[in-house]
Write a structure and sequence with these properties.
This protein is of the alpha+beta class. It has three domains: about 100 residues, no CATH class; about 150 residues, no CATH class; about 170 residues, no CATH class. The protein contains 13 helices and 14 strands. The chain has a four-stranded antiparallel β-sheet with strand order 3-4-5-6, covered by helices on one side. Strands 1-2 form a two-stranded antiparallel ribbon. Strands 7-8 form a two-stranded antiparallel ribbon. A hairpin with a 2-residue loop joins strand 9 and strand 10. Helix 2 runs antiparallel to helix 12, helix 3 runs antiparallel to helix 4 and helix 7 packs antiparallel against helix 12. It is rod-shaped and about 140 Å long. The two termini are about 25 Å apart. About 35% of the residues are buried. The model has no long low-confidence stretch (mean pLDDT about 90). GO terms for molecular function: structural molecule activity. Belongs to the flagella basal body rod proteins family. It is found in: Bacterial flagellum; Secreted. This is Flagellar hook-associated protein 1.
Amino acid sequence: MASTFAGLSITRRGLNAAQVGMTVTTNNMSNIDTDGYSRQVVSQTSVGPAAVYSSSLVGNGVEVTSVDRVNSFRLNQKYWQTNSAASKLEAQSTYLEQIEEVFGSTDSSKISTVLDDFEAQLETLADDPTDESVRATVLSYAETFCETLNYAAESLSSLREDLNNEVYTAVQNINSYTSQIAALNSQITTASASGASTNELEDQRDLLVDKLSSLVGIDVTAADDGSYTITVDGVTLVKGDKANQLECYTVTDTDSDAYGMYGIRWATSGKEFDSGDSGALGGYLQLRDGNTADNKGIVYYMNQLDEFARTFAQAFNEGVTSGSTTYSGHADGYGIDSAETTSTRFFTYNGLSSDDFVNSGSDLEDAYSNLTAANISVSKDIQEDTDKIAASSTAGEESNSDVLDNIIDICSTVAISGNSTTTELYNVIVATVAGDSASAQTAYASRSATATYINDSRTSVSGVSSDEETVNLSIYQQAYAASASMVSAWSELYDVTINMVDD
């Protein structure tokens, strides 16, 4: 038969179970807005008779076996993978928008605008090549054109430096997150071995893994002892209480697209770190160093801008042949100075004179290879004497504007590269950047939506619902009240029984 005091023992267990339930529910409610918190539930089981030889047909009540966190590791893994991919696209779309701002649109870009203004002043000068005030205005607009290209190149360089700093910060954050995850791994395995709860520790760890996944593509596996092993492209980043740290260094290889920028390597082995194809870090590196049509980054766009500046300057200075027609360049014409100067280059770089520019390379092509959007300038000759602006095809004919007319055509209607005019050549760059930016934004929107959906699925499993917890609290309160009533009933029963014995 059951123990004499079995009723009180069972009631005590019921009170304890209800109290634990109310405590867990209260804890859930208080953490409803805590980032990364997973709701907890009480696991309880019925307690059988005290011994197998007992003749009691009644069990011994209820026992709380554990308080478990509700969390789906499978959904976590899916989220971490998708979050890495979305974060890379977010980094790319953010910086591509800024690159797009530098180049402008095909309808209105600063470079196209100042080029049109420069051309308009050349047309005004063609009406009267001897007008000194117009010559001064032509110089001013030419300098503005060069300065606009200089500023665009400077802006791209600044964005690249920003990306380089992003790389450094990302590496520092990765090291911080992995160190904290390794420390939590250690705490979790120790606590788990001693039978203590690890719920809050696991929440903290998963939140750190969320942040880590936004920086680099990771694979996460859970060990039997509760610890995580995290790898990047097959190389272990975290295992147990150990974290494999990264370090940044300055790339000194002049043949590398990352020359002068931060490289990343494993701190212990010194081997190069491969960030993989996802994570914000991968996006930063690709945009910072990308230099091919299949891997476009700032270096690629800078090279395109340099090529535009170089091609335009060479066509303007040397002339071009388009189809069967040859158009004279500035070096073919004559100014109105007393020396009737010819062979003067209008555009050079770093303010070089025409002669110094020509002599800066082994040949003319080599000299132009030194000219970039960052250093293009009006030659020192023109800056010091606007009478050297060439207009005439014949020495001494000051009103002759044949060469200037050819130069104006070069600025507007003549193909200077393949079948592209100056405007079309620049618009190709603008359209490329705009297309890449739009593509990145579309891809990010799609992948971000997927990540949000998976995260919402995680939240539906592990998130705290105020309605659900309110119902749970009511259930546990009623259970507690019922058990408390049973305490009173059994106490009264025992009092009667004891009094009967005493009598």
